[in-house]
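Hi Y.,

Following your request, here is the sequence exactly as I used it, all 34 residues.
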Amino acid sequence: MSVMYEISGHKMIANNRDIIFIRFEKGKSGDLQP
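Below is the corresponding structure, written out as tokens. Let me know if you'd prefer a different format.
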């Protein structure tokens, strides 16, 4: 099961292996909204 996140106006699909990348983008880009 994947989760959709929207980062800086870009919609992204996050799989389990992408969580680290998502968190990195959150810290770098600001707020992460599910």
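Strands lie at 3-7, 10-14.

Thanks again,
Q.
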